[in-house]
Write a structure and sequence with these properties.
By secondary structure, this protein is mainly alpha-helical. It folds into two domains: about 170 residues, UbiA prenyltransferase (Tetracycline Repressor, domain 2, Orthogonal Bundle); about 120 residues, Four Helix Bundle (Hemerythrin (Met), subunit A), CATH 1.20.120. Helices cover about 65% and strands about 0% of the residues. It is built from 14 helices and two strands; from the N terminus they run E-E-H-H-H-H-H-H-H-H-H-H-H-H-H-H. Strands 1-2 form a two-stranded antiparallel ribbon. Helix 9 packs antiparallel against helix 14 and helix 13 packs antiparallel against helix 14. The longest helix is centred in the first third of the chain and has 28 residues. It is globular and about 50 Å long.
């Protein structure tokens, strides 16, 4: 019997045994492991799906706190209180809050970018340090927040725009390379204090207020508290800060002595606030004295890292209470 192929002599179907063509492979250059892109991958765009990670890196609690400080500043300057503000004045304050929040987001994103090596040594679980948020996307959003903040601020006039740019420059100084303010205790405290005063005065300006000596005293008290009690955030970061060359108070004197020094200084700042001749100033001072006393008690009782994290929590709660007092009394 004649066949048309060798295989058919044995009843084998045509084509059996031949190598099948390889399946079509969809080419996609965006190959990732987790959230980290490999070199040569397609450059990420805005990364809208990573918005939650972007805002987590901006530290939402800090964003809310800065917005509250701005509103407290507006409360200090609102002529006749909140009730006396008309619709246009309310709109100016709202735009000011949005502008200041965008700028704060840019500053803290930049801080996360600059501190990424040290944060990893400290075991930080924030998106950048943990690798869940790609660096390039963080840079894009950081620039975007800065531009939005400036554009919104420009609608409120030259003075407010200058305040926004000054806030960005202060934020850059706080984290920038070998000249970063975080390298030394004094420069970090100075930048934090300046950032606080700038926030309160920007809010006051947005509400159309006038900076009186009493108002300035309250703003200085609130900002001084930020500078002093803000050292609590460094108590648990000694390893990464030392490796990054930062001369924070805990790196210089050790965790426990630093806890005592910060706690005692917080009590002194609160006591000094009682010299302000206003009910609002004295209520704020009372909040700070209680917070400082709580920090002293924690230092006396606890040696573990958890107690140091609790000291930072006390700092944040005391800020919240003090600024809410200012807003409520407007």
């Amino acid at each position: 019997m004649r066949t048309s192929g060798a295989g058919q002599e044995y009843g084998v179907p045509p084509g059996y045994g031949r190598l099948a063509p390889p399946p079509a492979v969809r080419k996609d250059r965006r190959v990732t492991i987790g959230a980290q892109s490999r070199p040569g991958d397609a450059a990420p765009r805005l990364g809208w799906h990573m918005v939650p990670l972007v805002f987590a890196e901006c530290r939402p609690v800090v964003l809310v706190m800065f917005a509250l400080r701005f509103v407290a500043g507006a409360s200090l300057g609102a002529p006749g209180g909140w009730i006396a503000l008309d619709a246009r004045a309310w709109l100016v304050v709202v735009v000011g809050v949005l502008s200041w929040t965008a700028v704060t987001a840019a500053v803290y994103l930049y801080n996360g970018i600059a501190d990424m090596p040290g944060d990893r040594l400290n075991g930080s679980r924030r998106p950048l340090a943990s690798g869940r948020l790609p660096l390039r996307i963080a840079v894009i959003w950081c620039a975007g927040f800065a531009v939005v903040g400036i554009l919104l601020g420009a609608t409120l006039g030259v003075w407010f725009t200058a305040s926004v740019i000054a806030s960005l420059l202060i934020g850059w100084w706080y984290s920038a390379g070998r000249f970063a303010a975080t390298k030394h205790v004094w420069s970090a405290a100075l930048v934090i204090g300046l950032g606080g005063i700038l926030t309160y005065t920007a809010g006051l300006h947005a509400a159309g207020g006038i900076l009186s000596p009493q108002t300035l005293a309250i703003a200085v008290l609130l900002s001084l508290w930020m500078s002093v009690a803000g050292n609590t955030k460094d108590l648990g970061d000694i390893v990464g800060d030392r490796e990054a060359g930062r001369r924070t108070l805990p790196v210089m004197v050790g965790m426990r002595p630093a806890s005592w020094l910060v706690s005692a200084a917080c009590v002194l700042v609160g006591l000094a606030g009682f010299a302000i001749p206003s009910l609002a100033g004295r209520l704020v001072a009372g909040c700070f004295v209680l917070a400082g006393a709580a920090m002293l008690a924690m230092t006396a009782r606890g040696r573990d890292l958890g107690s140091k994290r609790m000291m930072y929590a006390v700092f944040m709660v005391s800020q919240l209470a003090a600024n809410l007092v200012i807003v409520a009394m407007a």
